[in-house]
Amino acid sequence: MTRVQDRPGHDRRYALSSAKLTAETGWRPLVEFDDGLAMTVRWYREHQPWCERVTSGAYREYYDRNYDHRIDALRSVRATAALPL
Questions:
Q1: Which terminus, N or C, of the chain has the lesser number of Cβ atoms within 10 Å?
Q2: How far apart are alpha carbons 48 and 59 in whole angstroms?
Q3: Model-level pTM greater than 0.70?
């Protein structure tokens, strides 16, 4: 790895702005950022059982049950068609 000098204009941080979108289309957010953040945190606090289900990893069982066999089927089709995997 060779370190190089920082490029002129290289961002030290990235900040997003919707100013161009607003100017060109008139779009405006329905909710101010701070209010939306507070609403999001409140929703997660009020729906802890849902959060626990989606962070437990149990959803992976669904994907294993429904999708694991598909790679073998794909390999079989490709082998029949003499295509590389």
A1: N
A2: 16
A3: no
For tokens 């598909």, name the residue. 70
- Tens of pLDDT, residue by residue over 15-66, are 788 899 999 999 999 999 999 999 999 999 999 999 998 888 888 888 888 8
**21 Cβ neighbours under 8 A, 6+ residues apart:** 27
Please choose, from the candidates 39, 14, 43, 41, the residue with its C-alpha nearest in 3D space to the C-alpha of residue 29: 39
10: in domain: no
Please count the residues of the chain: 85
In the chain, the amino acid numbered 55 is T
In a domain, 2, yes or no: no
- Residue 38 sits in which domain range? 17-46
